[in-house]
Design goal:
This is DUF1330 domain-containing protein. It comes from Fibrisoma limi BUZ 3. By secondary structure, the protein is α+β, with helices and mostly antiparallel strands. The protein folds into two domains: 1-29, no CATH class; 31-127, Alpha-Beta Plaits, CATH 3.30.70.100. The protein contains five helices and six strands, in the order H-E-E-E-H-E-E-H-H-H-E. It has helices at 3-10, 45-55, 96-103, 106-109, 112-118; strands spanning 13-15, 26-28, 32-40, 65-70, 87-93, 119-127. The strands form two sheets. It has a four-stranded antiparallel β-sheet. A two-stranded antiparallel sheet has the order 1-2. Helix 2 (45-55) packs antiparallel against helix 5 (112-118). It is globular.
Length: 130
């Protein structure tokens, strides 16, 4: 399967309806989306990146996909009462159970000391595609 077709499949759209008139209506298949706004402890960036290098590969084992990983410069933040994030992630999972299995993966949990040492705080936002 080509990369483009695989990407289209991962966007999780399916044909809805059975009549000819309905054939081309696209209906989003339910997905679970999480946005993480990550604030790293000053001087702990290398430890944070080590944590990410270890845990992000586990996403695919649980049907998860890293849709965006952004490291915005301070100049990209137009206003804030919450601070300047180091990174922003958007991930998707087909089901809540897939997300929970990823979150609770014992191999991933083994790396949590790196996260605890390097992350000042995280804002986790659950959402859905509209």
């Amino acid at each position: 399967m080509s990369a483009g077709l695989e990407r289209q499949k991962n966007l999780s759209f399916c044909l809805a309806g059975s009549s000819t008139n309905d054939l081309f209506q696209l209906t989003p298949r339910p997905m679970v989306y999480y946005t993480q706004v990550l604030f790293v402890v000053d001087g702990q960036e290398a430890i944070f990146e080590s944590f990410e290098d270890q845990v992000l590969p586990f996403l695919s084992q649980y049907n998860g996909e890293l849709l965006y990983r952004v490291r915005p410069p301070r100049s990209a933040v137009l206003a804030t009462s919450f601070g300047y994030p180091y990174e922003i992630h958007l991930v998707s999972f087909p089901t809540l159970a897939d997300f929970e299995a990823y979150r609770d993966n014992p191999q991933r949990l083994a790396y949590l000391p790196l996260k605890e040492q390097s992350i000042a705080r995280v804002l986790l936002i659950e959402g859905k595609a509209l």
